């Protein structure tokens, strides 16, 4: 097989037969599909992780421009392919990569960079027998830090202070305007994957109590109590914070709605670092306008990007971020480490980490 350096220089196109691939003891190289950017960034390190002659590369850009099917066996869909897309606004890079995946009849495994796999394409590929693996765990620290920062900012009234600063208004937070102590407050965390558990641990360090909600009521540390999603309304009357960090599913879509907010105490707060469709946006806006919700941090919304006409932009008690709670300079490396681990597992015929079909 040509070296990675030679591949870059020649920009050549390897072709392979359509014979079934055996991961261990294979008789021909695996063909890895990835973007030109990912090849430039990680190609030499990927090649170094595989025995000589065990891997060839195919860029999505080359495959999209070529006639006929793509010979990819495995694919790595990295952040620059999907990062600027939303479910309502796919970029040309994403649409092109999806086109190539659909014309890759021999594809057996796709590694994606998000922690969730809700895009219709992923369900389509899984229906074809393609393994889809996520980067669950790679974003747990950054998302939990974003959540913690937002929770402290909302509790300490930082957005309201920033609004007063813009108005050149000296408005001390005194008397009944003083923030409540976080110690003793209760947070209900919906979703107890790596992100939810990390958030729970951080909030426990602040002296808060934590109720976790998941598909079953099986106990999960470090939560004080764990409930099933269907019990959510039972615990919300004691919730000072409702925090969403769960996957989008038939069980969770719309779970944060008017009934949920009405069940919470007046002056409570809402945080969504999950998916926009898990909250009913008009109900979020209504609860904020009425003052029943004292504030919110929204990293995701129902339609992204958020409509410039949305009232959420101008609410002084709301922090809006453009689906970036997970972003950090080191995150891509953490995702790449998961890919390398899964590449070794795939070649060895072992179970894949974060296989969507095997997630509990």
Description:
This protein is of the alpha/beta class and 360 residues long. It folds into 2 domains: 4-138 and 330-352, Rossmann fold; 140-320, 3-Layer(aba) Sandwich (Rossmann fold), CATH 3.40.50.720. It is built from 13 helices and 12 strands. It has helices spanning 4-10, 36-48, 60-65, 79-82, 92-102, 120-127, 140-155, 158-166, 194-205, 232-235, 258-263, 281-290, 331-347, and strands at residues 30-34, 55-59, 74-77, 109-112, 131-133, 186-190, 209-214, 225-228, 241-244, 268-272, 293-298, 318-320. Strands 8-7-6-9-10-11-12 form a 7-stranded parallel sheet. Strands 2-1-3-4-5 form a 5-stranded parallel sheet, sandwiched between helices. The longest helix is centred in the last third of the chain and has 17 residues, at 331-347. It starts with a helix and ends in a 13-residue tail after the last helix. Residues 5-26 have low confidence and may be disordered.
């Amino acid at each position: 097989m040509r070296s990675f350096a030679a591949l870059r220089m020649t920009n050549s196109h390897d072709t392979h037969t359509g014979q079934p691939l055996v991961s261990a003891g294979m008789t021909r190289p695996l063909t890895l599909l990835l973007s030109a950017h990912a090849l430039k960034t990680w190609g030499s390190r990927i090649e170094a992780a595989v025995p000589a002659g065990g891997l060839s590369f195919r860029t999505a850009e080359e495959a999209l421009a070529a006639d006929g099917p793509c010979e990819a066996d495995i694919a790595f869909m990295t952040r620059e392919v999907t990062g600027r897309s939303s479910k309502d606004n796919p970029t040309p890079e994403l649409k092109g990569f999806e086109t190539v995946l659909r014309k890759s009849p021999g594809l057996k495994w796709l590694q994606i960079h998000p922690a969730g796999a809700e895009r219709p394409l992923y369900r389509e590929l899984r229906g074809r027998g393609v393994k889809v693996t996520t980067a669950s765990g790679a974003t747990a620290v950054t998302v939990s830090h974003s959540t913690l920062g937002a929770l402290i900012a909302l509790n300490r009234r930082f957005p309201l202070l920033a609004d007063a600063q813009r108005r050149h208004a000296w408005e001390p937070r005194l008397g009944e305007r003083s923030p409540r102590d976080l110690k003793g407050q209760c947070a209900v965390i919906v979703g107890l994957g790596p992100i939810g558990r990390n958030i729970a641990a951080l909030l426990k360090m602040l002296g808060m109590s934590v109720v976790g909600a998941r598909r079953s009521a099986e106990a999960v540390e470090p939560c004080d109590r764990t409930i099933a999603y269907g019990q959510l309304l039972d615990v919300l009357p004691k919730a000072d914070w409702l925090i969403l960090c769960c996957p989008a599913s038939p069980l969770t879509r719309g779970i944060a709605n008017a009934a949920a907010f009405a069940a919470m105490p007046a002056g409570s707060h809402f945080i969504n670092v999950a998916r926009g469709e898990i909250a009913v946006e008009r109900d979020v806006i209504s609860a904020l306008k009425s003052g029943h919700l004292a504030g919110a941090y929204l990293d995701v919304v129902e339609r992204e990007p958020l409509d410039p006409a949305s009232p959420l932009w101008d609410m002084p008690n709301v922090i809006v971020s453009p689906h970036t709670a997970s972003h950090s300079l080191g995150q891509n490396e953490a995702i790449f480490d998961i890919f390398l681990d899964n590449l070794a597992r795939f070649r060895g015929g072992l179970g894949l980490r974060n296989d969507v079909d095997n997630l509990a």
